[in-house]
Amino acid sequence: MGSAMRFKWMSVSAIMVATAGFSLGQAPVLAVSSAVTAGLRWGVTVTNTYSAPVTAFAIEAGRKGDYGVIGHRILWRDLVLSGAKLEIGLPPGASTFVTLGAGGPGGIAVRNTAVIYADGTTAGDPAIIAHFLHARQQFLAELPPTIALLRAASNDPGASRASLAGEFEKRQSAGAAALVDSSGMHSSDGVSLSVLATLKDTSQSVQSEAYGLVQNFTAWQAKLEASLPKLKVAGTAAAGTP
């Protein structure tokens, strides 16, 4: 696992995360450009200078005012948590633009880029990396019982849309509460939310919708199981172990 690096607040006019000088077994955080603005919205370009694709990253930003940095927020993406679709992360050498939102009178400040690479290497704020892995682990733990429940509904002529929705509303609340930690990131229970969003569409029978969810969730489970760092699957290596 890569080394953990932590950054203090930096002026955007000066911010460029250094990527040189890391040793074998370590990896750089993403290179972050100076912020640019179009009207009231600011953004930065992040570049992958490592040898493996990026699967997750986070950037913290805050408005610079007369009394320091306010409006702190974290912008993050995790392709492993994005559902069953197999997406290719930010490839080595590639860049993408990240919108940070509105700045203050003094512009915007950026800190603590955290990143997970497809080979399981990580860099950046340990609390943010731990949150990514916690969320991945929780989703992986939720999927087998969710798939079993939905498979039963798909084969039940009397399956009730309202009953299923009620069950997954409870699961969503519990799942979101379990994802609250010290990282400052706000994650939702994507498994239950996916079910609830599907059930709102009444153009198909609840049995057909449950069947479709089983197919998608089975693929998503395989995606999570194959992700690195290796997630804990009952009785195997600890979460976050490469």
Task: Pick out its properties.
elongated; 9 strands; alpha+beta; 242 residues; Immunoglobulin-like
Description:
- The protein is an alpha+beta fold and 242 residues long.
- The chain has two domains: 10-124, Immunoglobulin-like (Sandwich); 129-226, no CATH class.
- 32% of the residues lie in helices and 24% in strands.
- It has helices spanning 126-154, 161-178, 190-199, 206-226; strands at residues 10-11, 31-32, 36-38, 41-47, 54-65, 68-78, 95-102, 108-117, 122-123.
- The strands form two sheets. Strands 1, 5, 6, 8 and 9 form a five-stranded antiparallel sheet that branches. Strands 2, 3, 4 and 7 form a four-stranded antiparallel sheet that branches.
- A hairpin with a 4-residue loop joins strand 8 and strand 9 (122-123).
- Helix 2 (161-178) runs antiparallel to helix 3 (190-199) and helix 3 packs antiparallel against helix 4 (206-226).
- The longest helix is centred in the middle third of the chain and has 29 residues, at 126-154.
- The chain starts with 9 loop residues before the first strand and ends in a 16-residue tail after the last helix.
- 36% of the residues are buried.
Topology, pairings included?
Blueprint: E1 10-11, E2 31-32, E3 36-38, E4 41-47, E5 54-65, E6 68-78, E7 95-102, E8 108-117, E9 122-123, H1 126-154, H2 161-178, H3 190-199, H4 206-226
Antiparallel strand pairs: 1-8, 2-4, 3-4, 4-7, 5-6, 5-8, 8-9
Helix pairs in contact: 1-4, 2-3, 3-4
